[in-house]
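In the laboratory, one determines a bound structure by crystallizing the protein with its ligand and collecting diffraction data. In a computational setting the workflow is compressed into a single prediction: the sequence and the ligand go in, and a structural description comes out. We illustrate the idea with zinc ion.
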Amino acid sequence: MGKRDNIKTTIRQAVDYWSKIVDECELSVDWAEADTHCWRCGCEKGLERCHIIPDSLGGEDSPSNIVLLCKRCHIDGPNVTDPEIMWDWIKAYSVPFYNTFWGILGAKEYEFVYKKSVAQEIKDILDLAGVRYDETVEKNIKDIQYEVMANAGIHFGHTYFNTATMAGIHRMTLKKLANCYRVVFPLCTDQKDEPKVPWWL
Ligand SMILES: [Zn+2]
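The predicted complex, in structure-token form:
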């Protein structure tokens, strides 16, 4: 993990090698921009050359064993000797548009914690308030979110909100939104119909 100044494989070599093997439709990145954008999340930030099979476990310094990931994805990536795992993981997370990846992950985290999507929460709040979703509402939500973000921090050593923080920002935004429309939040849903399933099942 971390920077390895002694990797000889260049960014160009890794792109040239993999662009002939992997279809870009399966990735968050276009091959034309794969020398500057992370292959998992598509962000353009601090690209690192990462071993597919870790060098500590015998992985070679060759294009076939190198992918390009941002620091954040590098930390989250698999570190195992089966080379298929890295690509399974990268492909499983692909998104069609740049700059949407981490937002989607934050929304997924919200859904994981609260068992309901952010979009559904917004819809239910507005339905209860008898308000139709339009540009004014959209701007209101954005303004609230902006305000809420001032109350969110970044972990030491990170340069980003982690997914739990992003889920928290969604939750805090929804609370304020509900309050704005005088709706009690969390909403009383028919939880009786859906018994809580533990996360590990
Ligand atoms: Zn990334």
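The first helix runs from residue 11 to 19. Keep in mind that any predicted model is a hypothesis to be tested, not a measurement.
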